[in-house]
Here is the input.
Amino acid sequence: MEQKLMDTMDFELAMLIRRALSVQSEMRLGKLDRAAYLLLYLLKNKSPMGIKAIAEELRLDGSTISRQIASIEAKGYVERLPDPKDGRASLIQITSAGMDEFMLAKTARVQRFEEIFESWTEEEMVQFTTYLARLNHAE
Amino acid sequence: MEQKLMDTMDFELAMLIRRALSVQSEMRLGKLDRAAYLLLYLLKNKSPMGIKAIAEELRLDGSTISRQIASIEAKGYVERLPDPKDGRASLIQITSAGMDEFMLAKTARVQRFEEIFESWTEEEMVQFTTYLARLNHAE
DNA sequence: TTAATATATATGTATTATACATCTATTTAA
DNA sequence: TTAAATAGATGTATAATACATATATATTAA
Here is the structure.
């Protein structure tokens, strides 16, 4: 790879990450922070799941997911079912309150995205998303 | 924007950010963490700069930069010059030790990038980088 | 010129997301 | 049936950040 290109990509990736982090307060759209939003995003499509499976899917430590689930459970956005196959585990399921909050957050995020990507063509967004996914699923 | 596309992009961006965070220990290549690397990256090209200008360039709070500079100053990677025009400020300049560490970290990062982007064409990387920069510089 | 205000930086404090280590209860394997 | 493995919860540590406040210097207005 050309040196200059790597340099620029490295810098731009780092900046993206930095900005996403520092804009965190902005990204708390509605009552959901990013962690909660991602969990509900996942559980909306794949309920019910155990803590471990969620951790693997999101590539985070189980202890992190355990706490995050406890947090959104306290708010009533998910509930636990006993896992009939394993007494140690429980299965996490999104509630209707969770669905509602998720949809509210999503609407807010759509608006934000529409502003940010206003000048992009559909084709460009598709390409960019494809590259992102490819990078995420590498290695 | 199409709903599904926004959804996917949102998820993939969040995942990228998440992974970049949790891979932090890996990203401490050589003696430089990401913050130090970015500061030196900037100062290598634009020394000397004041704290405030650095904060604006990296879009972080001045207090954050003040601490980060103090940290790499203690390691001898940057030094302060009095600002002849303003007694409150100082100008931060990369040292030769800072240059050396930067180059070491850079070599390690190049290797890591080459692994990750092994299957990408130059053209794809250029495009992806262009999209990243465009996103970063949007407001 | 002097007093009020603004600015650059440093420091105190709080928050958040994370990992790793350890603990308990349960499951699986020898 | 005991030993080892596993799922999840909890204790603890770390890192990056922002915001509030303090201090010294600069700038502006009276």
About this structure: Chain A has a mean pLDDT of 86.
